[in-house]
Amino acid sequence: MSAFRLGVMGQPCLSRRNRDGLWSPVSLTRANRSLLSLLAVHCERSPLPRETVAEMLWPDCSEARSRSRLSSALWRLRKSIGPDAPVLETDGCIGLLRAPVLRVDLWCLRRAAGRVRTRPAETWTRRQIAALDLAMQFRSGPFLSEVDGEWTAAARQSCAELYETALECLMRFYRNRGDCHRSIDAARSLVRQDPYREDIHAALIELYAEAGQRARAISQYQHCCEILRTDLGVAPAGEIEASLTRALGRNAPAAIPADLAALVGEMDAALDRLHQQMRSLKSVLGALSN
User: Looking at domain 178-280, what is its CATH homologous superfamily?
Assistant: First the structure.
């Protein structure tokens, strides 16, 4: 039986491994991308009833029409892939096959995050964190990119929360191990995901200070204040002020020169671009090595 990989942490993509061990994309219709994405989000543990899948994908159609469209989508999927398509149909339900037949990037991230998220950071192993880091590298863009439907809003939110939880785990692990630079990378990615997380801004301020980057710590404080004031019309909570005080001492300056702040901002933006390029390169190298 063929082996497949399904990615939904970005634009949905199904790949099949050929006889040479290389992966090649499978051409999918819009309906099939939506179908596979929905199954990836909701069917990791068990299949869904056909009528539930049909209603979620085509909520504006009658029951008979939605079931007909689902049957058509499944027929086209099997026609484009073949009889070994990684879709499971049993007892009026639809799901996806499991490993080793199919690997789903979202499932890999869920499992890797689930192994550590409910346990103290002190008990996490480097092997567990390496698996979590690898699972996060599968992401290639916004979750479920170019997939439409009423069900996608909640799915994207759930996926985003999972990704943020994973980033927070990385931040906590590396900080606990004294690796400020990796912890900073995770924290920066996290505030890009959710720029209103004051607790992460506070942690990032302290991490910069621990790494000896006082100017960036102050710049991060000012950046947080600016975002909250401009976007939400509020001032930061006391935790931000306390973090700056802990990081730089009671006599920490409330501001830095505008030209230095601008330079630090430009350096941070350049580092962001470099990190994104490195993640993309790692994803490509990982795909080539499998």
Answer: Tetratricopeptide repeat domain (1.25.40.10)
Nearest by Cα to 18 from 28, 4, 32, 33 = 4
Phi, psi of 103 (to 5 degrees): -115, 125
Whole-angstrom Cα distance, residue 264 to residue 279?
Answer: 22
CB under 8 Å to 25, separation ≥6 — which residues? 13, 14, 15
Taking only Cα atoms into account, the Rg of the chain, rounded to an integer number of angstroms, comes to 22
State how far Cα 50 lies from the chain centre.
Answer: 28
CA 167 → CA 19, 183, 196, 207, distances in Å?
36, 9, 15, 15
The domain 4-104: what is its CATH number? 1.10.10.10
Torsion sign (Cα): 66, 68, 71, 76? negative
| Residue 196 · residue 228 · CB < 8 Å | yes
Report whether 78 contacts 93 (CB < 8 A).
no
pLDDT digit string, tens, across residues 116-171: 988 888 899 999 999 999 999 999 888 999 898 999 999 999 999 999 999 999 99
Global pTM?
0.79
Q: Rounded to an integer, what distance in angstroms lies between the CA atom of residue 12 and that of residue 77?
A: 14
The 10 Å Cβ neighbour count of residue 269 is: 10
